[in-house]
Amino acid sequence: MPEPGSHAYDIHRTRLRAEIDDDRSPEFHRTPDGEADEKANQLLRGDTPRPTPSAHGPRSGGPAGEKAERGDPGPVLDVRSVAVTDGALIAVDHSKEGGNAPIDLQWSAVPDGTVEVVVLCTDPDAPDGTFLHWLVTGIDPSATVFDPASPVGTEHANGYGEPGWGGPRPPVGDDAHRYQFRVYALAEQFAA
What we know:
This protein is an alpha+beta fold. It is built from 2 helices and 7 strands.
């Protein structure tokens, strides 16, 4: 059993979640989509989950192992998309070879004092280190949507060396990769 929180665990959970979604047996056929992640975690970890071993290791609180004080993260934006579901595979239409269609994103209102919004998508599981799939800067703070049909802001070169969205294309044989979408509300101009 992979360690909870590890990449291998996330892959195993994603595959189990897909099986739950596809399974029509009496045990799962009434599992709502929103509860499939919870059901997959329960099946993997059991009824009484044990703590993740790495949570108590020497690096669990910071570089020297000290327990870091968790401060206020400040305003956190709620980010959503109709094209992407947390923990699920990204549709082929959005992949590099399958159409390379950019992802639509929506986010909550930004805090006062925001001068620019930035959208970022990275793949931390790429073989050569974190891969940049998307970087859009200069989005007006009043915007709460990135609609691929009418893009806003400046789309920078991705890891493929092309401007705009560069869809997933993990190497053949790799386990599923994670794609992290982030929206930042900046108090000063982005410096590229």
